Amino acid sequence: MGYPLLIGPSRKSFIGYTLDLPPQERIEGTAAMVVLGIARGADIVRVHDVEVMSRIVRMTDAVVHRNRSEA
Q1: Beta-carbon neighbour count of residue 26 at 10 Å?
Q2: How many CB atoms lie within 10 A of CB 33?
Q3: What is the rounded CA–CA span in Å between residue 35 and residue 24?
Q4: Which stretches of the chain are DSSP H helices?
Q5: Residue 22: φ, ψ to 5°
Q6: What pTM did the predictor assign?
Q7: Residue 8, CB-side half-sphere exposure with 13 Å CA sphere
Q8: Which of 26, 40, 46, 66 is the catalytic position?
Q9: Lowest-pLDDT range, 4-18, 37-51, 55-69?
Q10: CB 5 within 8 A of CB 46
Q11: Does 46 participate in catalysis according to the annotation?
Q12: Can you tell me the distance from the alpha carbon of 71 to that of 27, in angstroms, rounded to the nearest whole number?
């Protein structure tokens, strides 16, 4: 499409249904969805827990881009 892809999985109900957790306890589920989204091509992520997710995004981005350049 040529446009940046944005995902916003932070604390979403599908995470709550899967993990049986209230919104404020869905950080691991959010992290998993952020990692998967970046690995599948997301350019922008919208999250609530910015400090923690920033570290997750930086690590995931480094691994995903390193693997692309080595392929």
Answers
A1: 24
A2: 21
A3: 19
A4: 13-19, 27-39, 50-70
A5: -75, 165
A6: 0.88
A7: 2
A8: 46
A9: 55-69
A10: no
A11: yes
A12: 32
Q: What are residue 46's phi and psi, to 5 degrees?
A: -110, 120
Amino acid at the residue 41: G
Phi, psi of 6 (to 5 degrees): -110, 135
Per-residue pLDDT reduced to its tens digit, 27-54: 999 999 999 999 999 999 999 999 999 9
Place of tokens 């350049």: 69
Q: Could you tell me if 66 and 43 are in contact, meaning their C-beta atoms sit under 8 angstroms apart?
A: no
Angle at 56 between CA 6 and CA 21, to 5 degrees: 80
Residue appearing with tokens 């989204």: 37
**What span, in angstroms and rounded, lies between the C-alpha atoms of 46 and 69?**
26
Amino acid at 38: I
